[in-house]
Design goal:
8 helices, seven-stranded parallel sheet, alpha/beta
Length: 256
Amino acid sequence: MGRASGRTVLITGASSGIGEATARRLASEGANLVLWARRQSLLDDLASHLTREHGIDVHTAVIDVRDRDLVNNEADALATAGIVPHVLINNAGLARGFSKLHEGDPADWDEMIDTNIKGVLNVSRAVIPHMVKLDRGHIINIGSTAGHLTYPAGNVYAGTKFFIRGLTDGMNLDLAGTSLKVSLVDPGYIETEFSVVRFRGDEDRAKQVYRGFRPLTGDDVADTIAYLVGLPDYMNITDVILMPTAQRNVYVVDRA
């Protein structure tokens, strides 16, 4: 058992990818979990497995982070039940489409902005006040290397991740004088559902993104998150850029 043992961790976008891997990793260390995602069947299966395997408490809710009222109501209900997370992991996010800005679909823009930006704002505004009241907690935002360097046709998605990078700095400043801390994890190429979602289910096109090199996995990012969670309360790592060795920046990838 690590330092996560007995702590409560809220993870958004917990039904797959980085969120699911992080839930499994922290459950193995004895953390109790609050898992939010949009797909109930996947949440139920994950919660059942983790409870049976690790004997932890798992609370689930079908939450679309774009729905501010739903997020607020669920956060308040948790607090009323005495469940205030020690760790909040703002993981829910996505990319849609792959077009030049002047050829892009505004519906894709709205979905990315509403999820990647407003979703993080909604969850943070709903949950962090309860953490501040108890004067303890750790917020971990999931960004991207695209928040450091934009790539062609990555315009709006990259813009949302640049926002998360700036927001993380702002959160840290606003929480000065409390015991709360904020970290940012910026993965590079990682093979999850990300590209399948971006290309609307075109698995062949998604596979080409990772052709010729070994990308990161959700487990790799989960290990990094677990390391951050395990730091002593007086220590914080504010930003981690995590890439496969084959990736040198968003443009340069050594492909076989």
